[in-house]
């Protein structure tokens, strides 16, 4: 139970941060990726037979369900009739309009505008190079959670100025202050000590209790990055050309600070405590799309530079995560581990159609 609560805290924090960082600074719509219908959909979920291509990620979906079955038997049993029916749909090579042949229906989501446009963003798990002790460029500490005291914890500026030094809280040292911050934004990361040992998963271990401020919004307000160009990659690129002091000047305006906890041989998990498979899992508002739900998503594809040029693909996915900023007709797509996934995640702020698959 404690582990489940910890994972929930990880992603509540992660999503609240990343959405305030990105969608708060971008236009809320990308008209190029919208799929307007002829008329408004009257209900949140509307019975509809989608005319879509075959999902491209059947194997990933199958692995995701197997992970769910082995790590959360109770959640699997709750939705077992749906998972088995979807398996039958897959095995019979039926079309997206033929879920009714296995006892299921497809319910189209009305989307944020009522025309079927579901907001899609992305998140990922960073991989950060680090050392066990400070050496050369690896001088930026990553901290574990301090023992709670009666006084308030130091803010980010105070921590950067050494407020936690000498307390035995350092669990790694990276070579990038911005990498550490992005790790905080995402809520977790894999740490590569480059010593021949497996990567270590650093999960969320707590925060200092100070208020959060969006550095993306600040960079836009300061004219450093255009609003329409805002992304994690844009922030990284900005930091590459700036001195350490300049980067610190920006980051200390966000007084909030996140601490981490090492986990060995650990997989990335969502709020349901189920390992997440890239492109087969999403975070959802569970009041609308309950955890464990199967959804069919028509996803806009982005080029390596983040541009949408009309290409789309269909994915069969499972709702296994939540987020403080994920509300209503909005999915956060889990895109995987490392820089490539991170770049894509930073660009996603688009729209797609989605159908919930259930009896």
Walk me through what this model shows.
28% of the residues lie in helices and 26% in strands. The chain has 359 residues and is of the alpha+beta class. It folds into two domains: 30-124 and 271-358, RlpA-like domain (Barwin-like endoglucanases, Beta Barrel); 125-264, Ribosomal Protein L25, Chain P. A hairpin with a 7-residue loop joins strand 7 (189-192) and strand 8 (200-207). The chain starts with a helix and ends with a strand.
Which terms would index this structure?
alpha+beta; Barwin-like endoglucanases; six-stranded mixed barrel; six-stranded mixed sheet; 10 helices; 28% helix; 26% strand
Quick structural gist:
It contains 10 helices and 14 strands.
Which secondary structure elements does this structure contain, and how are they paired or packed?
Blueprint: H1 2-21, E1 45-47, H2 58-71, H3 73-78, H4 80-91, E2 105-109, E3 118-125, E4 127-131, E5 140-143, H5 156-160, E6 170-174, H6 177-186, E7 189-192, E8 200-207, H7 215-221, H8 232-240, H9 244-251, E9 258-264, E10 281-283, E11 294-302, E12 308-321, E13 330-337, H10 339-347, E14 349-358
Parallel strand pairs: 3-13, 4-7, 10-12
Antiparallel strand pairs: 1-2, 2-14, 3-14, 4-6, 5-6, 7-8, 8-9, 10-13, 11-12, 11-14
